Amino acid sequence: MTLDCEFILLFRKGNLRKFPVHDPDRYESAFTKLQRDEWFSQIWALKGTRQTVSQLERRTAAYPDEIADRLIKMFSIKGETVLDPFLGSGTTTKIARQNERNSIGYETDQNLIPLIGKKIGESNTAEVTMLKR
User: Fold this and answer.
1) Which residues does 36 contact at the CB level (< 8 Å), separation at least 6?
2) What is the pLDDT of residue 133?
3) Nearest Cα to 76, choosing from 102, 104, 54, 49?
4) What are the residue boundaries of the structural domains of the chain, listed by start?
5) How do beta strands 102-105 and 81-84 pair?
């Protein structure tokens, strides 16, 4: 049995965010006290994602959807945009969409485009585009 521990580093530039007093998106994006107490703790006890997939998918950094779900809910509200600078298989984009957020991701491996499209539910890859170097 292997007990792995991975770190998530959070950085903030500037002061705390300010929201309009009665921002409906902020209130609709709220989480419970129980979630806050668990999510803002130093250790999360989550099972890793089993990688029983293709060699191409094995090269991406697989992690449970729950990690992306928590982080997106903790640090954004509905309608905001989530940036994933290392898109990989598209987990963050999938979870951002499920939580009514916009998502922009960058991936340099063109071979991952069909995988990303499949994960985010795009039957054609028109929405998943690749910028060539």
Assistant:
1) none
2) 47
3) 102
4) 24-120
5) parallel
Q: Domain spanning 24-120 has what CATH number?
A: 3.40.50.150
40, two tokens: 């803002």
Q: What is the pLDDT of residue 57?
A: 60
For 44, residues 6+ apart whose C-beta sits below 8 A from its C-beta are 38, 67, 70
Phi, then psi, of 8 in degrees rounded to 5: -115, 120
| Span 13-68, pLDDT tens digits | 899 888 888 888 888 898 899 999 999 888 888 876 666 566 666 566 678 899 99
pLDDT in tens, 3-16: 677 888 888 889 98
